[in-house]
């Protein structure tokens, strides 16, 4: 019976993976152009990147637009008197979410979504309440509170209104991933350690590499936050990690590798933008 249940779960996950944008475009290219599955997959990935470059502010599949509280509104202020802000939140990211669902469970996926959406909100100068999260994730506020408590046990903060001012010295899951990467733990192992998708971990590492390159050039935190489209608080966290390991002789070679990787990432991004503009 257990085996049948697991087979049913795997079949469901496989069916879901066939519905995402990347898979659909890959199939369209493969059957419409007689390209190999390998060629079709990489063309689909490149197409997705070009779409993001062409319309970075558009609402993408799996995202919603929601009115939430402005980040700077204090916790004690009445909601009716608060300034609101319109933000885009990723309710479903099929690649990330399916990866987590296959390796963990629904509770892990829900906690991942909580962290993703609270970070996205802050990045856009908004802040979610636990009531917002319960509505978005179709669960009771008590469930959100339990998830927040569990994440706190793992030394990961959930930055929601009412708790923002109380955040102590514990670090975010993104920072934990970068710290483990600096310790030469591979991204797949990091994903397992922090119960996140490999896609998310690779994105965190890429972001840190780009930030490290800018830190090495003496670029100010505020400008880095603008360039990388991240919050100033996250920039400060990444800068703290960079300084910590840069000052340790054992990690000099690792830091040089990361700076070089960050430089390459900027060059590739510039090339993609130039190619897109020439196409227009």
How would you characterize the overall build of this protein?
α5 packs across α7, α8 runs parallel beside α12 and α10 crosses α13. The chain is built from 13 helices and three strands, in the order αααββααβαααααααα. The chain has 280 residues and is mostly helical.
Q: Given the helix and strand composition, which structural class is it? A: mainly alpha
State which percent range the strand residues make up. 5-15%
**What value does the Rg take, in angstroms?**
20 Å
| Helix share, percent | 55-70%
Tell me the strand order in the biggest sheet.
2-1-3
Treating each run of at least 4 consecutive H or I residues as one helix, how many helices? Answer: 13
What low-confidence regions span 5 or more consecutive residues with pLDDT below 50?
A: 15-19, 165-170, 273-280
How far from one another are the termini? 57 Å
Largest sheet: 3 strands, antiparallel
**Count of extended strands:** 3
Mean pLDDT: 78
Topology pattern, helix = H, strand = E: HHHEEHHEHHHHHHHH
Instruction: Please state the overall shape, judged from the principal axes of the Cα atoms.
Output: globular
Number of domains: 3
């Amino acid at each position: 019976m257990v085996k049948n249940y697991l087979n049913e779960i795997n079949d469901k996950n496989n069916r879901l993976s066939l519905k995402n944008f990347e898979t659909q475009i890959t199939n369209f290219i493969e059957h419409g152009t007689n390209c190999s599955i390998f060629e079709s997959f990489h063309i689909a990935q490149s197409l997705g990147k070009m779409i993001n470059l062409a319309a970075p502010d558009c609402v993408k599949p799996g995202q919603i637009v929601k009115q939430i509280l402005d980040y700077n509104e204090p916790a004690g202020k009445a909601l009716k008197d608060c300034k609101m802000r319109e933000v885009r939140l990723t309710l479903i990211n099929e690649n990330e979410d399916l990866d987590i669902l296959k390796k963990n469970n629904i509770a892990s996926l829900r906690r991942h979504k909580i962290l993703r959406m609270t970070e996205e909100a802050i990045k856009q100068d908004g802040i979610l309440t636990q009531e917002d999260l319960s509505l978005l994730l179709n669960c009771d506020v008590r469930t959100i509170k339990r998830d927040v408590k569990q994440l706190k046990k793992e030394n990961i903060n959930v930055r929601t209104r009412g708790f923002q001012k109380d955040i102590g010295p514990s670090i975010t899951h993104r920072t934990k991933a970068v710290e483990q990467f600096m310790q030469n733990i591979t991204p797949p192992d990091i994903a397992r350690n922090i119960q996140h998708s490999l896609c998310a971990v690779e994105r965190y590492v890429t972001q840190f590499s780009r930030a490290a390159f800018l830190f090495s050039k003496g670029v100010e935190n505020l400008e880095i936050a603008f360039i990388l489209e991240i919050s100033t608080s996250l920039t400060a966290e990444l800068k703290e990690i960079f300084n910590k390991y840069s000052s340790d002789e054992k990690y000099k070679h690792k830091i040089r590798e990361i700076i070089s990787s960050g430089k390459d990432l900027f060059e590739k991004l510039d090339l993609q933008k130039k190619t897109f503009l020439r196409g227009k």
